[in-house]
Amino acid sequence: MSDEASLAQNVAQGLSQIPKTLSSRFFYDAKGSQLFQQIMALPEYYLTELEYQIFKKQRKEILYAFGTQAPFQLIDLGAGDAYKTKLLLQELVDQEAHFSFIPLDISQEPLHQLVEELGHLYPHLPVTGLAADYFQGLHWLNEHSKDRKLVLFLGSNIGNFSPVEAEGFLLKLRSSLAPQDRLLIGIDLRKDPRKIRLAYDDSAGVTAAFNLNLLARINHELQADFDLDQFEHFAEYNPISGTMRSYLVSRQNQEVHVKALNRTFHFEAWEAIHTENSHKYSLREIQEMAKRCHLAIDDVFTDASHGFADVLLRPVG
């Protein structure tokens, strides 16, 4: 199914139900990807900086825990601009390690820019960009290479799933790993609820623009007539469940027509569209989830504040 067809299906289903929902996977068109890069540079968005500090200060330890003596593939799921991954790339190049880099991203333009940039930085490094979803990319790699793999899933992207969905994702990912492969996964840890909420509701309004861009994308790709001025972004954090939730809220009673679906959707005043979850974990929860997904923890790397963790996992069973 094409990305546009998937978007159409999600809109048709999500806006027909109560409460209304839209999947966060459709945030990342070209403009959405640019806005997310801006979000990662915001002072409130601590996640990028904490994980960057882990890689900056502990990259040697991370690579030592994996083992880089034999040739391997470094696979970055949802690579984006590879801001943090570049620290590992530089360390590996300095070590003269025998490896290839496979950035995988669903957005083609940022992927092309990254591959071109790395070609200039590291002209002798084999780089293969894959524009695909995670499992399409891993399936292709398993079909075309038997090298050992270090798979990166950074930025707390696992938090975008509910705990049940996260386990399903990890089980599926586990099935793509050979016994000698490893998975390095970035996970945001539970912390001060106020700090978490501000990371998803910044004072500059960039996160709001990022969420509203989803409606702009539907307007563009499905010929809808969302009035973006009549929706506002709202975010809340539940410290009991550890879940940050984002919504787009209708300011008034209104009808939205989606020409590509030949459908009109009614919104009550202050009715919300649920757009995103971001789940935060404790180290105990991570250990229990890994065990249920037939993964064992080789090592845990945290920043100085213990607010973020990069967890090195190996398949077992």
UniProtKB/TrEMBL annotation:
Keyword terms: Methyltransferase, Transferase
GO biological process, one term: methylation
Gene3D superfamilies documented for this protein: Vaccinia Virus protein VP39
A Pfam family assignment: Methyltransf_33
Entry keyword Glycosyltransferase: no
Record GO terms (molecular function): methyltransferase activity
The Histidine-specific methyltransferase SAM-dependent domain, residue ranges: 8-314
Coiled-coil stretches noted in the UniProt entry, renumbered to this chain: none
Protein's UniProt keywords contain ATP-binding: no
Superkingdom, taxonomy of origin: Bacteria
NCBIfam families in the cross-refs: egtD_ergothio (TIGR03438)
Protein name: Histidine-specific methyltransferase SAM-dependent domain-containing protein
Upper classification of the organism: Bacteria, Pseudomonadati, Bacteroidota, Cytophagia, Cytophagales
